[in-house]
Amino acid sequence: MAETLLRYLGLFNYFYAIVGADDVQRHKPKPDTFLSYAELIGVPPEKCVVFEDADFGIQAAKSVKIAVVYIREL
Fold it and tell me: What's domain 2-73's superfamily in CATH?
């Protein structure tokens, strides 16, 4: 779904990788999705920023010290 939406919006080529629920065993509120992405792009989690619209995602990011932009407030 994420890939389809990003392609539709013309944003797909701005991402180095995509990690979704199917790519991890432990889902949000566990931080595995974000940690997997950080590893794929070679950036330490504490240097990443997550744009998130769900409470579980915010909880997951904060649990590993990833900065969060809460997009429901934008």
Answer: HAD superfamily/HAD-like (3.40.50.1000)
